[in-house]
Amino acid sequence: MSARPELGTTKSFFRKVRPELYWFHPPDGGELHVVVTKVGLVLVDSGLLRHREVILGLWRQAGLDPRKIRLGFMTHFHADHVGAMGWWSREFGFSVVAHANAAKVVEKGDLVITGTKIPYAGFDEDFVPCPIRHKVVGGERFPVGKHNFKVSAAPGHTVGSIHILCGDLLFVGDTLFADGSIGWMDVHWGSNPEDYVHTLEQMRPLCGALCAPGHGPPFRLSRTLIKRACKIVSFYIPLGHGLGFPRVPRHSPDRAR
């Protein structure tokens, strides 16, 4: 979830970023990404439920058939990213991968933790509970045809965020955006600045990778962007700043590391 305007436009569109990668931008909410393999499609996030018909229209324009989806990934549990994943998986019959901590939330369809209903911010959306077949903790690999998708735990923005690496393509959810900004920090979904910095530091060996974020266009990962993001996150570390506090306790089983 991002508190920033969505590319300054409410227009929906898609882009063929690479022969095997499609980026779908809905009128608002999170981006969707599709990887094309020889044995089917891999969907990363689903966007808001109310945009499903808009997205399906874009799929038709792109010449993609959602019945060919073989696997879905949830980068994190926010409704603007995966509020429709339960609908997509039921409608088109594919299994879903999510962090074990995120699975608890999306299978229940918790309206607060998923950011579905946030009266103080004007969010009033819907969330379709989604069964998670593959509950991961990081390190798992999912081969689809000749493509190999490796999961890593990426706590910070939320409890249960993950990154997915496929070759030099990295799906980062709301961890980092093209301008070096970060996802919305809020105690409701377990934001933790110390974890966030750790996640960003763990991304350094992947500099040069093409990142597909949860909001905005793809970008090349660089040390400059990581440094900028770490600086922003560090604002939340002193407890006196309050935002993003109280932390998820270090002894909590819901901590991803």
Q: Could you give the order of strands across the largest sheet?
A: 1-2-3-4-5-6-9
| End-to-end separation | 22 Å
Beta-strand percentage? 25-35%
Name the structural class: alpha/beta
The fold-level CATH name is: Metallo-beta-lactamase, Chain A
Low-confidence stretches: 3-8
Q: Biggest sheet, open or closed, and with what strands and sense? A: 7 strands, mixed
The pLDDT mean sits at: 91
Q: Going by CATH, what is the homologous superfamily? A: Ribonuclease Z/Hydroxyacylglutathione hydrolase-like
Task: Give the class-level CATH name.
Answer: Alpha Beta
Helix content: 10-25%
Describe the structure concisely for a colleague.
The chain has 257 residues and is α/β, with parallel strands linked by helices.
Written overview of the protein:
The protein is of the alpha/beta class and 257 residues long. The protein has a single domain, classed as Metallo-beta-lactamase, Chain A. Helices cover 21% and strands 26% of the residues. The protein is built from six helices and 15 strands. The chain has helices at 52-62, 79-82, 85-92, 100-108, 193-202, 223-234; strands at 13-18, 21-25, 32-37, 40-44, 69-73, 95-99, 117-118, 123-124, 134-136, 141-144, 147-153, 162-166, 169-173, 210-213, 219-220. The strands form three sheets. Strands 1-2-3-4-5-6-9 form a seven-stranded mixed β-sheet. It has a six-stranded mixed β-sheet with strand order 10-11-12-13-14-15, with no helix packed on it. Helix 5 (193-202) runs antiparallel to helix 6.
